[in-house]
């Protein structure tokens, strides 16, 4: 449905350094993204600006230099390491005489190649449609075949209007199907909560080694490779610990400036992260950009409202460092904060299990609440969480509840009630 990469496709890359730290990207990361997409870089244009040019993003002189390199290398696509407006894309294509893609489109294309499950394919298509709906500049007549085309057009309706109407219809259809998938996922999550087994979710920057670690811990066979976004569809496995077990979830890797369309489309998938009792934040400690990547993951966690869930930092790939051995770092209160391991060499895996046991051993929260009639709305929330173990009423009409729920759900309820729920606890 969209412009897709073919094996051996050649690309000219464009990377601009801006004075604003928030607008900066990493050129090495762009080259890895292009490689992951299946294209081959034949040239790089770099430069620096205080702000993007309104017409060409890079300025007219740099645009001519870009066009000359495209002609000299016979490249068939130009890929920017930045987000472009539809007008900038169109203007650059007229100058370069080839396709021009921005960073967001590139990431969406990689996701389209990696999607394996029905849900993953729907989510990627939805993100692509949302992004491309502002870029109806190359002709979308192929969309007509989905609904017949002839006979659908109103009097005087242009091709662009027809394409937009068909696009809106497709987006609505995908949203309906994803809502159904979301309800099925919700049922599975509730079943896991009823089992009183905590959920631990792997998060981290793309290519930090999450899937390799997941396979090493659970003996699963999730696809793992040294490339960006090797994992797209979430996988859950049971992880046996010394004093029990947890559900371990492998999730999609994060990246700086993760496209908003992607975050919105992957709502159901990211819910696995939001509902977790503990996050294992996997970090490639051999990467020179480790600190920056760590902050980028924290930004995405904040964006999806998962930043308050407890985190255990997993410093992976210690086999690439000198004189670093597996260990657990503790804070002043004796709580595990970091575990140093090598998933590839299977070093320190037992330390991860030990740290998880220490952190989630008491994640089930049991409390008695006295809820007056005026606060009856809390009953519905607790019923939806299936947390109520026993219920009775006192002489004043207050509802006395014995509640049992995960520590993460309890903290979430306290946050939503702005602390009021805590005043209802019977001590």
From TrEMBL:
Family annotation (Gene3D superfamilies): 6.10.250.2860, GTPase HflX, N-terminal domain (3.40.50.11060), P-loop containing nucleotide triphosphate hydrolases (3.40.50.300)
Gene Ontology molecular-function annotations: hydrolase activity
Alphabetically ordered keywords of this record: Cytoplasm, GTP-binding, Hydrolase, Magnesium, Metal-binding, Nucleotide-binding
Coiled coil: none
Location (main, coarse): cytoplasm
Pfam families reported for this sequence: GTP-bdg_M, GTP-bdg_N, MMR_HSR1
Domain Hflx-type G as annotated: residue spans: 198-364
Membrane spanning stretches: none
InterPro entries in the record: EFG_III/V, G_HFLX_dom, GTP-bd, GTP-bd_M, GTPase_HflX, GTPase_HflX_N, GTPase_HflX_N_sf, P-loop_NTPase
The organism's place on the tree of life at top rank: Bacteria
CDD domains: HflX (cd01878)
Subcellular location: Cytoplasm
Matches recorded under HAMAP family: GTPase_HflX
Role, per record: GTPase that associates with the 50S ribosomal subunit and may have a role during protein synthesis or ribosome biogenesis.
Assembly mode: Monomer. Associates with the 50S ribosomal subunit.
NCBIfam families given in the database record: GTP_HflX (TIGR03156), PRK11058.1 (NF008280)
Family: Belongs to the TRAFAC class OBG-HflX-like GTPase superfamily. HflX GTPase family.
Protein name: GTPase HflX
Name of the encoding gene: hflX
